[in-house]
């Protein structure tokens, strides 16, 4: 997104999209308690996967700003409950004496993966172009979501 809006010389548009994403994320995360009391964790994870996959596709096509901002808001809203539901599942499924290890690994991965992904994405955007890279990443997310939805563990009750 920063490279795209820099190319268009529209830094304010980047701020609008990032703000929409952040607003949706905050609303989704803070709404986790309300959401989780109304639907099962399985269905919540399905909604997270479907919502992120469906909202990233229009974003990858780099539409006009209003559509991009709306898609970013839906992406944030969909992804917002992810951390609370993952932390809840860890607390429910991992023995208490192993919480520190599991949360340590989770935190390490969540801090290490984004910079590595940014490096790969930067090289790809330079070599293949912003649009091609974004469409490829959206396709990868959709494929990952489909594979995750097809796993046996998501079909079981947790």
Helical coverage, percent range: over 70%
Low-confidence stretches: none
The total of helices stands at 9
CATH architectural label: Up-down Bundle
**Compute the gyration radius: what is it?**
17 Å
The tally of strands reads 0
Largest sheet data = none
What is the average of the pLDDT values? 91
Multimeric organization: single chain
The N- to C-terminal Cα distance equals 36 Å
Which class do the helix and strand fractions yield? mainly alpha
CATH topology: Growth Hormone, Chain: A
SSE inventory with pairings:
Blueprint: H1 2-8, H2 11-30, H3 32-36, H4 41-60, H5 65-79, H6 82-93, H7 99-128, H8 130-149, H9 152-155
Helix pairs in contact: 2-5, 4-5, 4-8, 7-8
Features:
single chain; Growth Hormone, Chain: A
Outline the structure in words.
With 158 residues, the chain is an all-alpha fold. The protein has a single domain, classed as MFS general substrate transporter like domains (Growth Hormone, Chain: A). It is built from 9 helices and no strands. Helix 2 runs parallel beside helix 5 and helix 4 runs antiparallel to helix 8 (130-149). The longest helix is centred in the C-terminal third of the chain and has 30 residues, at 99-128. The chain is globular, with a radius of gyration of 17 Å. The model has no long low-confidence stretch (mean pLDDT 91).
